[in-house]
Please model this.
Amino acid sequence: VGVVTASDAAAGIGAWVRELELIDHHCHAVMGADLGRDAFERLLGESGRAAPAGCSMFDTNLGLALRAWCAPVLDLPVGVSGEDYIERRRALGAAEANARLLAGGARELLVDTGYRSGELVSLDQLGRWIGGPVHEIARLETMAEEVAAALHRRGVAPTTAADVYADVFAGALAERKTAVGWKSVAAYRGGLALDWSRPGPGEVRAAAAEWLGAGPDHRSGTPAWRLAHPVLIRHGVWSALDTGRPIQFHTGFGDTDARLAGSDPALLSGLMADTADLGTPILLLHCWPRHREAGYLAQMWPHVHLDIGETIPHVGARAGAVLAETLELAPWHKVLYSSDAFGLAELYHLGATLQRRALTAVLAPLAEMGLDRSELVRLATLVTSGNARRVYPGLAGGGAGTRGTGPPALTC
Ligand SMILES: [Zn+2]
Model:
C-alpha cells in the first residue's frame, strides 16, 4: 500500500516528458524529393545499400518503430506495411510528409552541413518546418578539403601551399562565425587510434606538402580532395580546440565507410587527458556499442559529453535499455539529445518519440526510489535541452560551456 511501482510511475512521467522542449545537437537535413521504395529503404539503414533480394529494411527495429510511430502521423494504422507506408508518403508529397514529421521533433537544431548537403533541403527550409532556430556544425575534414581545393584552384604551388596551409585553415575557422561547433569524422578517415598529441608546425608543413603535393582525385571526373592524413586530422582537431567552440567526434557505429574497430571512443582517452585543462567541450556522438565506455569517459572528464542519438531510432523498442546502460556511469549533466537524422524526416520524429519513451523508462525507477517530480523534471530537462544550452555558447540562452568557473544556465 502506498508503494509507487515503476510502471505506475512511468504512466505519469510519460505525460510531462512528452511536453519537454528538445534541442537536437546532431542531425542532418532531409531529402526534399519524393522517394521511391528503394531510395527510402537505403536511407532506412546506415549501410546505404539495399537489403538482399526479397528482404526489406522495414524488418529492423528501426523499420518496426517507423511502422508504429510514424504511420499515425501520415494517417495510417500502426503496423502498416512498408509498401503502403511509401505509397501514402508519395500521395501526400514529400513536403507535406516532411512538415508533419518534423513538427513532432526538436524545436532547435544543430545541423552537420558537411555530408551530402547538396542533396538535402536548405537549413532555412528545415527551420520553417520545425518552427525554430537552426544552427550549423562545420566538419573539420570538409573544411580542410575546401582549403586544399581553393589553394589548388588558385594555382598555388604545393610547396607554397604547404607553407601557408596552417594559417589558411586557422583563417577558415575564424571566418566560420555561423558554426556553433565543429565535428571531426576522423573515425571515417583511418580511425581514432592516433597519437592525439598536438603536431608541431614543421610536422604540419611536411604533412601538408605530402597531401597537397599528391593532388586531388580525378576518378569521378571532378577534382576531389579527401583528407585522411593523420597529422592533418590531428592538426584540424587541435586548431578547432583552440577556438573554444565545442567539438563533436563520430564514434561507434556508422555507415560502410566507417571501421567499427577504429571508432571506439576510448581511443580518444589521450586527447581527453591532454585537453582537460583547456576545457573545450568534447562531444562523443552515437557511441553504440561502446556507449558504456563513453559514459565512463564522460564521468571521468569534466569537458567530455556524449549522446546516443543515432542509436535510439535504430534500436527502436530497446531505446530505454540502451539509455539506461549509458546512464549507468554517465552523469545526467553529460548526456545530450540528438536524432542524427539524415535524409528522412521519419528519423527526426522517431528520434524525438523514442528519446521521450526511453527517458520515461529510465526515470520510472528513480520515482520508485522516492525522487519527487520536480527532481525528475530537472534531470530530464538536462538531457532534452539544458546540457546543450550549457555546452554550446551559440544557442539561445546558452553560455557557460565547461570553461571557467561560472555556473551554467541550468544547474546540474
Ligand atoms: Zn550524423
About this structure: DSSP finds 16 helices and seven strands in the chain. Confidence is low (pLDDT under 50) at residues 398-412. Residues 115 and 166 are 23 Å apart (CA to CA).
